[in-house]
Amino acid sequence: MALIKTRARGLKLDDTFAFTGTVSGAGGGKVLQTTSANTTSTTVSSATSYSAFGNGMDLTLTPSSSSNYFLIIFSSNYDIQADNRQGNYGLWREIGGDASTNVSLGQMIQLGGKQTKSPAAFIYKDSPNTTSAVRYRIPVRATTGNEILFGGYFAANTSLTIMEIAG
Length: 167
Prior knowledge:
- This protein is mainly β and 167 residues long.
- Helix content is 0%, strand content 51%.
- It is built from no helices and 14 strands.
- A hairpin with a 2-residue loop joins strand 1 and strand 2.
């Protein structure tokens, strides 16, 4: 039988506790692996079609089980240089190096209108249902041909982090 040391005001955490046995029924949720990319460089997109973010914002992980999922976290800042200009950014996924599996996940996020300087970020949960390598990229475009600068205005890092979570 387990011995629990308690005090009237709660559990005394500076004591030593020994655990024997196994935990069952705990389910998923454990972080199995993670990868990330960071850059302080500014990425400029003046194309009206989507292109990958660049500067190392291209990550690949291979899930250990098809029932696991990925938590994707993107954080940056953006700067639209002129009034009445717009752009978008979002998330692309490709499975097993096959370009035909390239899909846009979720809705592309609309930026701008007037001269705008603001944070740009999202958190996305993806269930690719595969054990093949999964590649994620951040697509960007300026819908009116205007430049969009990421990461430069606030002199902050742009980061992309992906975590595999047990399903």
